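Here comes my example:
=====
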Amino acid sequence: MATKQYIAKYHQLKQIYERELGKEIADITWYRVVATLKQHFNFSVLSSDAQKIVETFAGFKRRYGSFTGRGEGFSERWQAFRHFYEMDAQYQGGEFLKLLAEHLKINLDDVPRSTPYYWFERAELSFSAENIYHCKDLALVAFVAAKWAINKRSQPMKSTNTKVLTLAL
């Protein structure tokens, strides 16, 4: 059974989430958000950092929309985020892209030139191969890039073998 303190904090956190998100949400939606936070962030309603976690999560949700903790590819995207977030290092932009490609198991040559700029832009950073970035900031870039990598892998392979095309006719 929930205590009065728990219920009050639970409702206060919902109001903070709605304020950060910029809209009201249903109670069942808030229940699901709390469940997601508990699953992925070791979240506790009564913890001292609960408000900061809720504000951060709402900011991600507002920016990325699909930041729900569910859905296809979220686990891989979250893994990429955590991989870089848990590092205590700094990298040049170009060096980071090589590490990211290695982590996501993609070939950097297959990435269109403008795509890394898009990844950084979505993380509210400006990309330069020479700039130094902290891994805490690069974690969001990895989250965005992982979605691209997942989508790229799920595209059907195009065959350039004319024999295969001839057999199809």
